[in-house]
Structure formats: structure tokens, C-alpha cells
């Protein structure tokens, strides 16, 4: 059973049933008899249903993005890229803005036939680094093991 109030002046008069313009209706659960009081609450219920439908639509739209991109794989990729930037900062001894232009393409590394080819690509990219890069390369190769190449998003045909 729910309580529906009508009017704009809350106060003790409503509790006693006296004037003040407020009325209190007790609404029976669905399936009960229909009366004038039952028609007061549906407006609020319609608004609530519309809000729920809008939330479901938003979730559904977000779901489409999740289907097109594997969210877990994207998160792993982001964490790896952040780690690479941090490690390059340590290797070059500077902040990201001051760092020389070093391009490490994870998809290119994943396309490589074997570990040796990946190692060569990384050594070529880090040729200007004056600090030892072996540990960084070894750790990066360990981290990308098991990752998949990210495919471009699928275009939805109309």
C-alpha cells in the first residue's frame, strides 16, 4: 500500500484530516478496485517508468560500444601504454614532454614473427637511449605475451 498526498501545504492539519487543502489517499496494490484515488499516482509512475527506460537506453548505447571494442583488452592496452611512458621517462631521464620521439607500436610488435624480431624492433626504436635497455625490452616482451592485436572498430552497415 502506498501513500499519495495532494496539495501544497504540509502541516499538522493534514494528519488530523482538517482543512489546509491537503488530502491523503491510500492506494491499494495493483489489481485492486479502481477509484479516483488510484488515478492520482499513475502520473508519478509514468515519469518513473520513462526515467527507467531512458537509463536502459543509455546502458544499451554503452553496451554497443563495449561490443565493438573489447573493454578488457582496451584496459590492458592502456595500462601497458602508461607503463611504457613511465619506463621511457626513466630510461631517458626526463618527463614525457621532453622525451625524444620514440615510437613503440604494440600492434607492430604483436605482428612480429618471433621474440628475436620483436627485440630487434625495440632496440631500433631505443637506439638513442644512453642507458641499458635490456631489462625494459625483456619486461615489455613479457607484458605483451598473450595480448591480441586490436582490430579497428567495426562500421555498422545501414
- Share of residues in helices: 40-55%
Radius of gyration, taken over Cα atoms and rounded to an integer in Å: 32 Å
Order of helices and strands: EHEHHHHH
Contiguous low-pLDDT stretches (5 residues minimum) are: 8-17
- Relative strand content: 5-15%
Enumerate the strands of the largest sheet in spatial order, edge to edge or round the barrel: 1-2
- Cα(first) to Cα(last) distance is 48 Å
Number of separate strands: 2
Instruction: Give the mean pLDDT.
Output: 75
The chain-level structural class is: mainly alpha
Kindly report the oligomeric state of this protein: single chain
Overall 3D form: elongated
Strand count, sense and barrel status of the largest sheet are: 2 strands, antiparallel
What is the count of helical runs?
Answer: 6
GO molecular function: protein serine/threonine phosphatase inhibitor activity
Region (Disordered): 1-66
Protein name: Protein phosphatase 1 regulatory inhibitor subunit 14C
Keywords: Acetylation, Phosphoprotein, Protein phosphatase inhibitor
Amino acid at each position: 500500500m502506498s501513500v499519495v498526498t495532494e496539495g501544497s501545504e504540509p502541516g499538522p492539519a493534514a494528519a488530523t484530516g482538517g482543512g489546509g487543502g491537503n488530502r491523503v489517499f491510500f492506494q491499494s496494490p495493483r489489481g485492486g478496485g479502481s477509484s479516483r484515488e488510484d488515478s492520482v499516482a499513475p502520473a508519478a509512475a509514468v515519469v518513473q517508468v520513462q526515467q527507467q527506460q531512458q537509463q536502459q537506453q543509455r546502458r544499451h548505447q554503452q553496451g554497443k560500444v563495449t561490443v565493438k571494442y573489447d573493454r578488457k583488452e582496451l584496459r590492458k592496452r592502456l595500462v601497458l601504454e602508461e607503463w611504457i611512458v613511465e619506463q621511457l621517462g626513466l630510461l631517458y631521464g626526463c618527463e614525457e614532454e621532453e622525451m625524444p620521439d620514440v615510437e613503440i607500436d604494440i600492434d607492430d610488435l604483436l605482428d612480429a614473427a618471433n621474440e628475436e624480431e620483436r627485440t630487434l624492433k625495440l632496440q631500433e626504436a631505443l637506439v638513442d637511449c644512453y642507458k641499458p635497455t635490456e631489462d625494459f625490452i625483456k619486461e615489455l616482451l613479457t607484458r605483451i605475451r598473450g595480448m591480441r592485436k586490436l582490430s579497428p572498430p567495426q562500421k555498422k552497415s545501414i
